[in-house]
Amino acid sequence: MTRIVFSGGRVFTGRTTEPGDVVVEGDRIVDVGIGLDGDTVVDATGHTVLPGLFDCHVHFMLSGSDLVRSLNTPFSLRFYEAIGNMRATLRCGITTVRDALGADLGVAEAVRRGLVPGPRMQIAINMVSQTGGHNDDWMQCGAHISPPLHPGLPDTVADGPEELRKVVRTLVRHGADIIKIASSGGVLSPRSNPRHAHFRDEEIAMIVQEARAAGIAVMSHAMSGDGILTAVRNGVRSIEHGVFLTDSGVEAMLENGTWLVPTLMAPRMVLDQAAAGVAISDVILEKAKSVVAQHFQSFQKAYRAGVKIAMGTDSGVGAHGDNLTELTLMAEYGMSPAEAIHATTRSAAELMGLEDELGELAPGKLADLVLVEGDAEQHVKAGTLKQAIRAVYQNGVSVL
């Protein structure tokens, strides 16, 4: 096979960047070092070579928070929009994601089979919610307003352990790689309160039990302090958002090895759309405003305590392709730029159970690489990382 050497750049080692070359054969990295040669040379002089980046919380089937637009979007058009959303994500260096609600098995398979370009993905398909919870789309007028259920997207609103057992098994049947639940209310749901916990211990315990029986993990949308605690003590793998994280929640996460996926961008995306003229209800807008400052404080609390953190954005709530803003926010609120990159590479790979294949530039790993002009850490700090990306490789093939 042809040996491609990325020569003369600086290589991100996981904690810092050092001068080095990376050699790729086929879809694998075969060597990392100084003065390496190959059949084809990619001149990386003046560039930082990063591993392929991760986003652990996206929604490819969503394209913003404009309810009126959503109601006037033909059913099948969303699948075509998802192609553009995946392309935009890939072009900013993100080669692997967790789709946290929306993408069904067909969307994932289209990427896996090479029919459309996009990040490799683990899919949750739909979010498991209690009646009146964060994924119950019932409106006060009596209408349901979410995209319609279809053969690839089953109903996941359920109550009580036995109903939830059935829902989890149904999601596994439909191809879920991970189970997503809502153990608190949220911002965009019409009737839920992000400060209220949802599901009781026996309900989440059942969900986790059934997921583990299928060999997969559980991620939990959890904003309220009690909702976080209930999810953590019953064995979820990651807390998404973690807005009202308490000291006891931090202690529980440390004790159980639970991950945090902060999605610091999420409420800001809602507020930015409202400022741009998107019609967002006063109730949702007030919820978004109420969580921003607390969100950052909780992130800082978790980071300083040593909670494991992986990058996620909630893209789909807002625009796809702006994902790398999340690294700048993580750096602004306490992480070093190198730590933010680590959260977006090695840490994210570990969260998703892909650390044996991805997340770092090392022999034997899949050849996902991102070439960044200049110093990637400085770009994270300045908020210019996306603009500095010059090439993206996935499985050894250029996709940008």
UniProtKB/TrEMBL annotation:
GO molecular function: hydrolase activity, acting on carbon-nitrogen (but not peptide) bonds
Pfam family, one: Amidohydro_1
Gene3D superfamilies xref list: Metal-dependent hydrolases (3.20.20.140), Urease, subunit C, domain 1 (2.30.40.10)
Domain of life: Bacteria
CDD domains for this protein: Met_dep_hydrolase_A
Alphabetized InterPro entries for the sequence: Amidohydro-rel, Metal-dep_hydrolase_composite, Metal_Hydrolase, Metallo-dep_Hydrolase, OTAase-like
Span of domain Amidohydrolase-related: 48-397
Protein name according to UniProt: Imidazolonepropionase
Organism: Lentzea xinjiangensis
